[in-house]
Amino acid sequence: MITIAIGSDHAGYRLKQEVKDYFRDQGIRFNDFGVDTPESVDYPDIALVVAESVARGENKYGILICGTGIGMVMAANKVPGIRAALCHDIFTARAAREHNDANILAVGERVTGGGVACGIVETFLQTSFQGGRHERMFL
User: Fold this and answer.
1) For 51, which of 28, 76, 96, 116 could close a Cys bridge (C-beta 3.0–4.6 Å)?
2) CA 9, CA 18: separation in Å to the nearest integer?
3) What's the CATH number for 3-138?
4) Other CB atoms closer than 10 Å to residue 3's CB: what's the count?
5) Could you tell me the end-to-end alpha-carbon distance of the chain, in angstroms, rounded to an integer?
6) Domain residue spans of the chain
7) What does the alpha-carbon distance between residue 35 and residue 46 come to, in Å, rounded to a whole number?
């Protein structure tokens, strides 16, 4: 069984709690890298620990949540081996996995509701990389 790394800053704290509830309901194992309160923190600190855990293979995928998802995805993509994608809907989540072999999903609490976010997460986790012509992009 795979394990998912999840983390948020203060602006993504509430949505992270909803995603964790979804994980529990689905029996998905996860490691929560913070935050544990809505107190202000620096998002790059959270993005770094989640991305490093995925890059080391300790977690198969990562989920990062902040206000918009933009800062998290930018910070995570600085870690070698990480292919983080900011997704706002099911189509982009599917494409991120099928075409880009994304290993981290970023979403924004201020722009994505809980139900939609859980659908995005579900799609991301259930979609496989297509390989083929898409593999050339990673050579």
Assistant:
1) 76
2) 14
3) 3.40.1400.10
4) 14
5) 29
6) 3-138
7) 8
How many angstroms separate the Cα of 121 from the Cα of each of 34, 42, 126, 136? 18, 23, 9, 26
**Amino acid found at 35:** V
How confident is the model over 14-68, as pLDDT tens digits?
A: 999 999 999 999 999 999 999 999 899 999 999 999 999 999 999 999 999 999 9
For residue 85, give Cα distances in angstroms to 6, 74, 76, 114: 14, 9, 9, 18
7 CB-near residues (< 8 Å, 6+ apart):
16, 32, 33, 34, 35, 46, 47, 49, 50, 62, 63, 64, 65
- Helices 114-126 and 90-100 pack at an angle, to 10 degrees, of 20
Predicted model pTM: 0.94
- Tell me the catalytic residues: 66, 99
Amino acid in position 5: A
